[in-house]
Amino acid sequence: MYPVSYEFSANPFIYVLLGAFALCLLALAFVTLRDTNEDTWLVRAYNKSAMKRLRLSQLLRSRGVDTDFYARIVPIKVIQSQIAACKNCPSKQICDQVLWRDNPSSLDYSFCPNNRSINRVLQPAPEIQT
Q: How many angstroms separate the Cα of 122 from the Cα of each of 57, 95, 99, 126?
């Protein structure tokens, strides 16, 4: 018997088409994940990565909050509104000054548009009386 050799030579045009298809899927996923309110692990991962690119994650860390845990327990709509408020914040200079001090946990965060919302999330749940 003669040895069998299989040669595969694809047209470079196929690689271009596959690359374009992959980019289209990636763009579709980005647009879909950004605007959805569904509570899925993928949406939470996207929101967590969006939070980490903003001052919001530094603000939470300065208040002693684990951002990974925060991204898992806070409702999607709340996180998305906090991300939007942080992106459009009029107090970015004040925020930078406060967050880069030596002991930011003892400071007043009333300048932050997310302060009330974060305080509500961080409040301990009321005890249930039996």
A: 14, 20, 19, 12
pTM over 0.70: no
Asked if 52 contacts 95 with a C-beta cutoff of 8 angstroms, the reply is no
Maximum alpha-carbon separation in the chain: 85
- In degrees and rounded to multiples of 5, residue 70 shows phi and psi of -60, -45
81 CB burial (10 A radius; 0-12, 13-18, 19+): middle
Task: Write out pLDDT tens, residues 52-75.
Answer: 899 999 989 888 888 888 888 888
